[in-house]
Amino acid sequence: MLPNRMQLTKTVEEQLKRLKTFTDVTPNIAARIAFFRSVETGFIYTPNDEKKLDGSLVLDKITWLGETQLITEQVLKLKYPDLQGKALQSAWAAHVEDGIAGLRNHKSLLEFSRSL
């Protein structure tokens, strides 16, 4: 399963923080939404696309995933049965990066909620 402490890339982290500034949606909630949006669109992570997870926002797995922890981990295990630990974290981070692309430019909570 996923490691207990997780982080994203600096770029994604900055996008999540910027989104919070405009919408007040916290980075962990936005990351959850972005992950599931990415899964819904059919994005597939490949280990060749692995990026350095160098963000400074290192949070516990339960903080990042909240009530979606079990389903998030199960979705990842179904999509990537051969991945474990850090590799699975990289897959999660790639999905968050893919999903945030469609959310990062919203300037208000109303605009953000309409995009969901």
TrEMBL record:
It comes from the Bacteria. Pfam families: DndE (PF08870). InterPro entries: DNA_S_DndE, DndE_sf. This is DNA sulfur modification protein DndE. It comes from Pseudoalteromonas phenolica.
